[in-house]
Amino acid sequence: MGAFRYEALEVLLRQQIQTGRFKIGEKLPSVRTLCKQHELSKATVIHALHKLEADQLVYAVPKSGYFVAESDADYNTPQKVSTPSIPAQVNVPDIFRDIMSRSAAFDILPSDGSTPAAQHLINLNRMIGKASRSHPEQKAHYYDEPKGHVGLRSAIVDLYRQRETSLNLDDLCITSGCQHALFLALMATCQKGDTVAIESPAFYGALQQLEQLGLHVIEISSDTNKGLDLQELAEKIQDWPIKACIVTPNFHTPTGSKIPLANMKALVKLANQHDFYIIEDDIYGELRFRSELCPPIKSVCDDGRVILCGSFSKCLSR
User: Fold this and answer.
1) Among 153, 231, 250, 276, which is least packed, fewest CB within 10 Å?
2) How far apart are CA 11 and CA 17, in angstroms?
3) Are strands 195-200 and 244-247 parallel, antiparallel or unpaired?
4) Is residue 26 part of a domain?
5) For residue 82, what is the DSSP state?
6) CA-CA distance, 126 to 110, in Å (whole number)?
């Protein structure tokens, strides 16, 4: 039996699910029933169910209860793609540019520009104008310090502390978004003609930036479960030294993969050995399950080898 009472219930329900006592899609006994059967408090039962939910064994339906979820084994995960063995110049097709220009909107759906602005944008502009007029000019219009608003940077430091990551306030710089941050990171670490390692498949926005900067790319396979293939990376950089490696450790686009903590540490070690920078795209780091902890690679490296790029656009805009 576990050290806490909820652990005993969690283990029991987990075993019953794994042995088929409860089938996929079947509803678990209600919280009230579990309280009576096991003589536990409501808070203890809910804690156990939340642990199972975090492990994706069950899912909650509002006002209905908890149901058994499909396991990872019930899905055929995509196989790793084969990647070229040598670096290549990036050539982003025009169709990708079109997709980006049409989808980079504040609307729920992409727009071709022919439709009028959504009402919520009109209201937002009105509120911004009203706020500007209600403050003295010297307070509403001024140049902030180059690194960005100190209050915002301080809040970001506090937010990452919750993800076991220690950031220095003076090292933070507010940009126009994660794409802008990635672009600046590439400019700081690379020169035209340098080679950058990227996960394959990769987010087309990053490919466009690499093309604009005249950088070469070496593709590294990305596993749907463990993310970047470190063995493949180690083998390729023996022949093709790189200046940087762009990686999304938490919920990579488009595979959704997560890099285990041990692999993060191994990647940092590899970067130190071969003298390249890790440009971390952490834009999806906050889109995690309730009790799941998703620390960035930056959490295991404090020597400046990792350049952390993030944004709130994905967790706040929709």
Assistant:
1) 231
2) 10
3) parallel
4) yes
5) P
6) 23
Single-letter amino acid code for the residue at 230: L
d(CA 264, CA 297): 6
Using CB atoms within 10 Å of the CB of residue 299, give its burial: 0 to 12 exposed, 13 to 18 middle, 19+ buried: buried
What pTM does this model have?
0.64
Pick from 17, 49, 74: which residue ends a domain?
A: 74
CATH number for the domain harbouring residue 279: 3.40.640.10
Domain that holds residue 218: 88-107+175-316
| Tokens 């604009």 found at | 212
Give tens-digit pLDDT for 182-226. 999 999 999 999 999 999 888 778 888 898 899 999 999 888 878
Query: Which residues is 66 bridged to in the sheet?
Result: 60
Please count the residues of the chain.
Answer: 318
CA distance 97 to 100: 5
